[in-house]
Design brief:
One of its GO terms (biological process) is DNA-templated transcription initiation. The chain is 69% helix and 0% strand. By secondary structure, the chain is an all-alpha fold. Helix 3 packs across helix 4, helix 5 crosses helix 8 and helix 6 crosses helix 8.
Length: 204
């Protein structure tokens, strides 16, 4: 968590210095997740795309002030949320949103480097990514924000307008769902049970 935060701060520092490569890294890392987040509010993909694109334009144009931002990841999400609410007001839409989503597990696996185990890992990771894609919208979104973007449950709750308990429950259910995928994979004989313990999934 602290390492991710430091990495984001370093990216913002480099962007402030005008490093286009750092800006490109930020864009590739966050665009899809922010777009998905925006779609919970504005519903239309093209509108979400425009709002997130505008945010990145502003980040680059106002890069000289990035040193004032203490939590870059939260800043990105909060900026998108503010943009969405402004958009909804202009469109005279109701701003109350029902959320339920998030994407592939930011799961890490400790395995040996043998070709057979690597193949098993890739097969299992594909199944896990598919399982995340099939999660309810709110669960998938919450899970991605917590596990991929390393936001705290409290921060996610504030951004999505949910209670902390709801966010924690969604993360728990997502993890439980993915654990079931892992168990089913091994129970189906796709890998030797003796090696199952070598797969250590960091889901929290």
């Amino acid at each position: 968590m602290a390492q991710d935060h430091r990495h984001m701060e370093e990216l913002f520092t480099r962007i402030q210095r005008g490093e286009k490569q750092a800006f490109d890294q930020l864009y590739l890392r966050y665009f899809d997740n922010l777009k998905q987040f925006a779609q919970h509010y504005v519903k239309r993909e093209e509108s979400a795309d425009e709002l997130v694109s505008e945010l990145f334009v502003q980040v680059w144009l106002r890069r000289g002030a990035l040193h004032e931002i203490h939590n870059p990841t939260r800043y990105l999400y909060q900026s998108v949320k503010n943009g969405c609410l402004t958009y909804l007001k202009k469109e005279n839409r109701h701003t109350r949103v029902s959320l339920d989503e998030v994407d592939p597990a930011n799961l890490q696996v400790a395995i040996t480097a043998s070709p057979e185990q690597l193949l098993e890992y890739k097969e299992l990771l594909t199944l896990l990514e598919e399982a995340v894609d099939l999660m309810p919208d709110q669960r998938r979104t919450v899970f991605r924000m917590v596990k991929e973007d390393r936001l705290k449950c409290r921060e996610v709750a504030e951004l999505l307008g949910l209670s902390v308990r709801t966010v924690e429950n969604q993360v728990y259910r997502a993890v439980k769902q993915l654990n079931e995928v892992v168990e089913s994979y091994f129970d189906a004989g796709n890998a030797n049970q003796g090696r199952a313990s070598r797969f250590f999934f960091l889901v929290i």
